[in-house]
Specification:
The structure holds two protein chains of two kinds. Chain A is mainly beta. In chain A, 9% of the residues lie in helices and 33% in strands. Chain A has a domain of 189 residues. In chain A, the strands form three sheets. In chain A, strands 1, 4, 5, 6, 7, 10, 11, 12, 13, 14, 15, 16 and 17 form a 13-stranded mixed beta sheet that branches. Chain B has three domains: 286 residues, no CATH class; 94 residues, Elongation Factor Tu (Ef-tu), domain 3; 58 residues, no CATH class. Helices cover 5% and strands 37% of the residues of chain B. In chain B, the strands form ten sheets. Chain B has a seven-stranded mixed beta sheet, with no helix packed on it. In chain B, a hairpin with a 2-residue loop joins strand 11 and strand 12. The longest helix of chain B has 11 residues. Chain B is extended and about 145 Å long. The chains are: A mainly beta, B mainly beta. The interface between A and B is large, with 44 and 39 residues.
Chain lengths: 281, 565
């Protein structure tokens, strides 16, 4: 006979009886700990966040069709070119008003105060000068952010003949044809290859010239002040200080547009920057 | 709550029933249990997170730094004006008298970077500056080819075999330490070690597996090219001087099937071609060799123009990818995770100096053992096996003469190109490169004549196209697991029927090194491994004996080999 002290008696009015039996389990589901570890790792990852890809890649100027000039010998064949062309015009003095004054802006560092000797002999005050292109996300100065700056040094560029000390010599002029080879500074734009952190595919680019001789910056605009209709010194903040650079991420190319006409520039039509002359000169 | 059970006291079961204890039997069927709730404390370790993320990442941003060494050694003549007017002349005064201008093509026909040359030969595109002369691929070993026809020559004896046959040899009898031996002069490093056996391609008395007795002969540095077996008095002509054949390494003659090595040509699959590869000059870094330049006076040039000509350069280059290299889901030629990738540099020769078309192909291929002091017959135009699978394209120009210029086509991603001659052993799970893959460029003799007497096998330049970058290293020990324990066994593990166990080598973690200092440790940031590799890319002129001397050096005093070596 098995003896215990539990008695089951009939309840009043034959009501049901309930047996409470404590059950102890001393086993676990397989790999529960591993699953918890995984969950733990995931939570940690969520808290710390996944690393952001800040890697940059180089964007190069998108190719365009170029038809060489007709010669007597060869029939010109359109070919693709990749160079981007810049022309920087400095105010050489004279009048500001009227379309006839446009010729007062010239592509010559001499107009910015450099002598031919300084340019020819690459003095430090000349070689330390540069053009500075600032890339903004918006043309509106109130809310824009500068994301990128590109320097075009004066040691690059095309050359022009001048007479110096009675001799014909070639000196640099502020006309640039930047490409994969040759003058390359300023051709490639290094920008984030991933759009997850900053999703911008077009920039509004303004230009300044740093004159190391005077230690001053000169603001540039995209059309000469002589073409301003109302007031020579009033330029449109949204349009006249910028060119539009559009980035194509899949092909890693960029294209430049004129803010006034929205036509592509930098091709056979160069990007032109003109010195802005203030009311005080 | 109702149920169909009633508990009746035993005394009421029947008349005069005794009072006894009663039992209730309850089945407890529990199929799940709630987890015990308790507090788990866990420190948020950024170092651990970084480590976890790093080990899990299969994204790479490789950079190769290539030191390019070449010598411009072959002179020739041409009637095509853009070429003739721009040579590095060797005897301009004599050329002026004879009207036949002889010289070297300038450096820009060899260099990675081709500057803008106003030679009116073709319309120059700056964006293609790095891809006119050479093209670049990122490749990984993907397949094995056991049927590639091969040929090697040693001392006027030529051996032909296919890659799957093993390593070729020429046999001769000798005496070593008073014992008669049969020596096997291999035509490439045999890589055998003590305790190995060899399976020969022929049998003696139905036996073709032999134990190795010793390595080398009396010559210095011959041990990796000669192995010996004991001559216990074999009769007949099976083991005679001059007999040729092939052998395979065997680890255990009692387990021949599993421990016998396999031999093959590794096939590399292209991941990216030149469209996604960026080549740039490496700052101001130059190699140790100076540039050779000279002034060509107008009075002794064919077009009466004074210019500076340059024969060589000493530039170094950086090669990076425009896209990330993602290796997840990609396996190598042994179904393992890819542990090694290659920057495969292949001649393009867009200017048309090289690569004369032969049935649509111009670029030659072979292996290091095909580079010999004399121009090996393997490279002859009559040997169809010496051509790569890279087709040529062409264009025609007229200037002085009308010429057709051939250049090698750029292959698309996914294409396979031949690679190194390798050995693999299932049992030891180890791959060994026996002889590296070589390509050869030869001048198109119709455009630029370097051979006075026309020959189907003109001299040229050799190079090793596949430049390796090790991403992961497999362990120097072999993991094993019993047949019934399949958890955590990688899919590439080899199952040994004899041992009834799986065998494999585990890839080391990134940053982990073994006792032999084997391992990789690349910077990890931006969710990618920034792997790098420094390589020397050589363009080897004809006549340079690249492979080590097969028979060793017959020198009286052995050179001192110390830690410096």
């Amino acid at each position: 006979m098995i003896v215990n002290k539990v008695q089951v008696k009939l309840g009043v009015n034959n009501t049901d009886k309930v047996l409470q039996i404590p059950v102890m389990l001393d086993w676990e589901l397989l790999n529960t700990e591993n699953e918890v570890d995984k969950l733990e790792a995931q939570i940690n990852q969520d808290i710390a966040g996944l690393g952001i890809d800040f890697e940059t890649t180089r964007f190069s100027h998108s190719a365009y069709t170029f038809t060489p000039p007709i010669t007597n010998v060869i029939q010109p064949t359109p070919t693709l070119r990749t160079n981007i062309n810049y022309e920087f015009y400095f105010f050489s003095g004279g009048t500001l008003n009227g379309s006839s004054s446009t010729a007062n802006w010239i592509t010559d560092y001499n107009a910015e105060g450099f002598s031919y000797d300084e340019i020819y002999y690459y003095t430090r005050r000349f070689t330390n000068s540069f053009f500075k292109l600032d890339f903004y996300d918006s043309p509106s100065q109130a809310g824009q952010q500068n994301y990128l700056t590109v320097i075009i040094p004066t040691t690059q560029g095309e050359q022009m003949p001048v007479v110096m000390q009675g001799q014909n010599v070639l000196i640099n002029k502020p006309v640039f044809s930047l490409d994969f080879v040759g003058d390359t500074d300023g051709f490639f734009l290094y920008w984030l290859q991933s759009r997850e952190y900053i999703n911008v595919d077009q920039f509004y680019v303004s230009c300044k010239f740093y004159n190391a001789k005077t230690n001053e910056f000169t603001r540039m605009v995209n059309r000469p002040q002589s073409l301003q209709n109302i007031n020579t010194f009033t330029v449109n903040n949204l349009f006249n200080f910028y060119y539009l650079y559009k980035f194509d991420y899949p092909s890693e190319k960029y294209v430049v547009f004129d803010m006034g006409t929205f036509e592509r520039v930098g091709t056979t039509t160069p990007i032109k920057w003109y010195e802005y002359v203030g009311p005080n000169g | 709550m109702n149920n169909r059970f009633e508990i009746i006291p035993s005394s009421l079961s029947f008349k005069s029933a005794p009072i006894v204890d009663q039992q209730v039997t309850i089945d407890l069927n529990q199929t799940q249990k709630e987890l015990t709730q308790y507090v788990r404390n866990n420190s948020l370790s950024l170092a651990q997170l970084y480590q976890d993320e790093r080990q899990a990442s299969s994204r790479f941003r490789p950079t190769f730094k290539i030191q390019y060494l070449y010598d411009n050694t072959l002179t020739g003549t041409t009637g095509y004006n853009p070429f003739k007017n721009n040579l590095y002349y060797v005897d301009p005064i004599q050329s002026k008298l004879s009207g036949i201008w002889k010289g070297f093509p300038q450096y820009y026909e060899f260099d990675f970077f081709r500057p803008r040359i106003n030679d009116e030969h073709f319309d120059y595109q700056p964006s293609s500056a790095y891809t006119y002369n050479w093209t670049y691929y990122l490749t990984y070993p993907a397949e094995n080819d056991y049927t590639v026809p091969m040929e090697a020559t040693y001392q006027n004896t030529t051996v032909n075999w296919t890659s799957g046959d093993g390593i070729p040899f020429i046999m001769f009898k000798s005496i070593q330490g008073g014992a008669n031996i049969i020596s096997f002069q291999c035509l490439m490093p045999h890589n055998l070690t003590d305790g190995n056996f060899v399976e020969l391609s022929f049998s003696y008395d139905q036996e073709n597996v032999f134990e190795i007795f010793s390595f080398g002969d009396s010559n210095y540095d011959s041990s990796n090219f000669i192995f010996n077996i004991q001559d216990i008095g074999y009769t007949g002509n099976t083991f005679s001087d001059g007999v040729t054949g092939t052998f395979k390494r065997v680890l255990d003659p009692n387990n021949l099937l599993e421990t016998r090595s396999k031999y093959y040509v590794r096939k590399n699959r292209i991941v990216y071609n030149e469209k996604d590869i960026i080549v740039t000059k490496t700052g101001f870094e130059l190699n140790a060799f100076s540039n050779q330049k000279k002034l060509e006076y107008s009075s002794i040039t064919p077009n009466d123009i004074t210019r500076i000509s340059q024969k060589t350069t000493s530039l170094t280059y950086n090669v990076t990818l425009a896209k990330d290299l993602i290796l997840s889901g990609i396996t190598d030629n042994h179904n393992r995770p890819v542990g090694e990738v290659f920057l495969s540099i292949v001649n393009k020769g867009y200017s048309g100096y090289f690569n004369r078309s032969n049935n649509g192909f111009g670029l030659k291929q072979g292996w290091v053992f095909n580079i010999t002091n004399d121009n090996d017959t393997w490279w002859s135009d009559s040997n169809q096996y010496s051509y790569t699978n890279i087709p040529v394209d062409s264009y025609t120009q007229t200037n002085g003469t009308t010429e057709t210029f051939y250049y090698n086509r750029v292959l698309e991603p996914g294409t396979l190109i031949d690679g190194d001659f390798c050995e693999w052993n299932d049992y030891s799970q180890f791959e060994l490169v026996i002889s590296r893959y070589v390509q050869k460029i030869q001048y198109n003799q119709e455009v630029f004549t370097t051979e006075i007497t026309p020959t189907p096998n003109p001299d040229g330049y050799y190079y090793l196209p596949h430049n390796p970058m090790v991403l992961r290293v497999f362990s120097d020990y072999i993991e094993t697991s019993q047949a019934n324990q399949v958890e955590n066994i990688p899919t590439y593990a080899y199952f040994s029927e004899q041992d009834q166990q799986f065998r494999w080598r585990e890839p080391y973690l990134y940053g982990e090194f073994d006792e032999l200092d084997r391992g990789t440790n690349f910077p990890y940031l931006n969710r990618a491994h920034y792997s790098f590799s420094n390589q020397i890319f050589r363009l080897i002129p004809e006549g340079s004996n690249y492979q080590e001397v097969l028979g060793g050096f017959d020198i009286a005093v052995q050179p001192i080999v110390d830690d410096c070596e």
